[in-house]
Design brief:
Length: 76
């Protein structure tokens, strides 16, 4: 999903958290809840794309000039 505008990841995550709180409250009418849910899906997709782009940049920056292959990070 190519996007013409870059998103602010932190702002998008904060908006997403607020949407989740509103939806979890159960106080919204169904139509309004569906609109909030749709907005949340769009924010989630934008965040995922931003994270993929950041991961790709990190991989490019870490690529060794001597041809050494990168390995996936294992936090354990």
């Amino acid at each position: 999903m190519p996007s013409a505008k870059k998103i602010n990841l932190e702002k998008s995550l904060a908006s997403l958290e607020k949407l989740v709180e509103e939806l979890e409250s159960g106080d919204l009418p169904l139509e309004q809840a569906m609109k909030k849910f749709e907005e949340g899906i769009k924010l989630t997709r934008g965040c995922q794309e931003a994270l993929r782009a950041a991961e790709q940049k990190v991989k490019i920056l870490l690529k060794s000039t001597d041809g050494e292959e990168l390995t996936d990070f294992d936090p354990s």
